Amino acid sequence: MVFSLSSKRWGGILISGMLFTLVSVSVQASDKRSLTDRADDARKQSKTIEQEQLQKARDAANETQSREREVLKRQESADWESEQVEKARQDFNERESREQRYLREAKEAASKERKLPKP
């Protein structure tokens, strides 16, 4: 009986070993599938992230271009403003020189003797 018990144990050990082997093979197969699935998911995720990054880069480039346009507009308006300031300065100088000429002519006229016609 001792022998029959140990053979039963050996049989149980062998059966459990075979079951363990089958389970581990099936687990490895499922791991392989899941690794493949994981790799596919990682590729998809990588492509998605790459597309998102490209879109962000495009958006940033567009924002940069719009900021550059705004700066150029401000610079152009500054040129316009400087032109207007220069025109105003020229007008002022012309008025001032005109006033100076009028004053000079008035002084010259005042310094001349007037001859009134005799009645």
Annotate the secondary structure layout.
Elements: H1 2-111
Please, could you describe this protein's structure?
- This protein has 1 helix and no strands.
- With about 120 residues, it is mainly α.
- The mean pLDDT is about 80.
What's the Cα radius of gyration?
50 Å
Give the SSE string: H
DSSP strand count: 0
Major beta sheet, specifics? none
Q: Overall pLDDT, averaged?
A: 81
Shape: rod-shaped
List low-confidence stretches. none
Helix % is over 70%
Question: Can you describe this structure in just a few lines?
Answer:
This protein is mostly helical. It has one helix at 2-111.
Core attributes:
119 residues; mainly alpha
